[in-house]
C-alpha cells in the first residue's frame, strides 16, 4: 500500500508591496508572521490563485475576507500580540 504524499500549500508574502517569499499556509505560522511584523510595515498574503488571504497595517489585521477563518486566526494571533505566547522565527520556502 502506498501512501499519497500530502502537498503543502504556500502563501506569497508581500511586505510594503514587495515580494519577500512564501510561507506555509498554516494558521499558527500566519499568526506568528503578523504578530512579528514591524508596526510601520504592511503585509499582504496571497494564495496560489492570486486571491488575497489577508492584509495588515503594521501588526494589526486590515482585511481578512474569510470571516470564519478569521475567528480561528484570532485564537493564535491575540495571545501572540499580548505577549502570552512566544513568537518563533518565520521560515520562508526556498524558491
Features:
5 strands; alpha+beta; single chain
Describe the secondary-structure layout:
Blueprint: E1 10-15, E2 18-24, H1 27-36, E3 43-46, E4 52-57, E5 60-63, H2 67-81
Helix pairs in contact: 1-2
Would you mind describing this structure in some detail?
The protein has 95 residues and is an alpha+beta fold. It has helices at 27-36, 67-81, and strands at 10-15, 18-24, 43-46, 52-57, 60-63. Helix content is 26%, strand content 28%. Strands 2-1-3-4-5 form a five-stranded antiparallel β-sheet, covered by helices on one side.
Largest sheet properties: 5 strands, antiparallel
| Rg, Å, rounded | 14 Å
Q: How many distinct beta strands?
A: 5
Strand content: 25-35%
What percentage of residues falls in helices of 4 or more residues?
25-40%
The strand order across the widest sheet is: 2-1-3-4-5
Helical run tally:
2
**Number of structural units classed as domains:** 1
Shape: globular
Q: Calculate the mean pLDDT score and round it.
A: 94
Order of helices and strands: EEHEEEH
The chain-level structural class is: alpha+beta
Low-confidence stretches: none
Termini separation: 32 Å
Amino acid at each position: 500500500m502506498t501512501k499519497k504524499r500530502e502537498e503543502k500549500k504556500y502563501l506569497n508574502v508581500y511586505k510594503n508591496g514587495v515580494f519577500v517569499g512564501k510561507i506555509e499556509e498554516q494558521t499558527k505560522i500566519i499568526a506568528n508572521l503578523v504578530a512579528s511584523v514591524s508596526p510601520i510595515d504592511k503585509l499582504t498574503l496571497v494564495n496560489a490563485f492570486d486571491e488575497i488571504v489577508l492584509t495588515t497595517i503594521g501588526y494589526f489585521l486590515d482585511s481578512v475576507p474569510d470571516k470564519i477563518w478569521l475567528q480561528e486566526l484570532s485564537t493564535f494571533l491575540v495571545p501572540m500580540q499580548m505577549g502570552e505566547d512566544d513568537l518563533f522565527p518565520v521560515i520562508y520556502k526556498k524558491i
